[in-house]
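**User:** Here is a favour to ask of a fellow structure person. Please take any protein you like and set down a full record of it. No explanation is needed for now; the record alone will do.

**Assistant:**
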Amino acid sequence: MSDLTVSRHFVLAALAGAERAGLDTHDMLRRAGIFPELLKIEKARVSSRQYSKLMQTLWSDMADEFMGMGPRRCRTGTFATMCALVIDCPTLEAVYQQAWQFSRLFEPTVCMRLEDDGDRARLVMVIEGDVYDPMHFLQESILVIWHRLGSWLIGQPVELEQAQFNYPRPPHGDEYRHIFHCPLAFNARETALTFDRRFLTAPVIRDKPEMRQFLKTSPADLLSRPDESNTYTGRIRALIGRDFSKPLPDFEWIAAELHTSPQTLRRRLKQENTSFQEIKDLLRRDMAIYYLGRPEIAINDIAHRVGFTEPSTFHRAFKKWTGVTPGAYRDGERGQP
C-alpha cells in the first residue's frame, strides 16, 4: 500500500495551468485514476501513486514541464537533460552550480541560485518574467525538486534549517510543515531554503544506470512522495508500522529505539513541525483512505484495521480528518457525487 497521501489542494493547484489553457482536466484526472467527484470533498486526499501519474499526464499532454505556469514553455526532457549533466559532478556543490549554469541557458530563467556564506548555504529562487502561479505551485515544485534531487544524488537528506517564502502564508500553509520539516518564514524578502554548508561537500554517489531508473518516474515522484527517510517523523512511522489492530508502541519505547531521551525526541519533533500524536493520526488517516479505495473491505473492518475498537469513534475521527464520513468518502472515490 502507498504510505502517504497528497492533499486535494495540490491536485487542483497542479491543474491550474492546464485549466487556463482550456484543456480537459477531468480527462487528465480520470487517466490518473482520480475521480473528479472526489475533489468536491474539501479535505479529500489522493494516493502518492495517483498524484505521480497526474503529474506525468500533465507534462506529457502539455509538453511543458512548467505546466503552463512559467514565463515560458519548458519543453519535455529539460529536467532529464539537466540530470544527465549533473550526474558526473563530484559533490553537491558542483551539482547546484552545474544546474544553475544549465538553467541560465534559457530565458527567462527559472531556477535556484546557490549562495554560500561560509557557514550556511542557501538555495534562492530566481524567476524572471511573468508567471501564472495563483496557488504558488510552481515555486513550491521548484523548491521541492531541487532539494530532493540533491538529497537523492548524495544518498542522504539535506537537512533544512529554514524555508522562506516571499509571499504571505497561504491557506494551505499547514501542508508546508510536512513538506519541508523545518521552521517556516513567510513574507520574506526571497523564497529560499537554508541548510548547513557541510552538505555541499557531500559526494555524489549515484551513477548513470541509477539515474536512468530514477528518471522513469521523476520528477513526479519527487513531488508526490515526501522524503522522510532520515527525519524523526519518518523513522517513527517506520517503527509504528502498519498494523494498528495491535497495541501501538509507546513514546518511551520509540525514544529508546531511536537512542534518544523522550524529552529530546519531543524537541526534535517540534523542530520538524509535528508531534507523536499527529504522526499516529496521519498514519491512521492515510491507511483509512487506502482501505476505503478497496470496496471489498467493509467500513467496520477498516475501523478495526486502523486501530478503532468502535466504528462510531472511527466515523467521528475520519470526519474530523476529511470533513465527511467514511461512506461519503468512499462514494467520492467511486465517482459518485
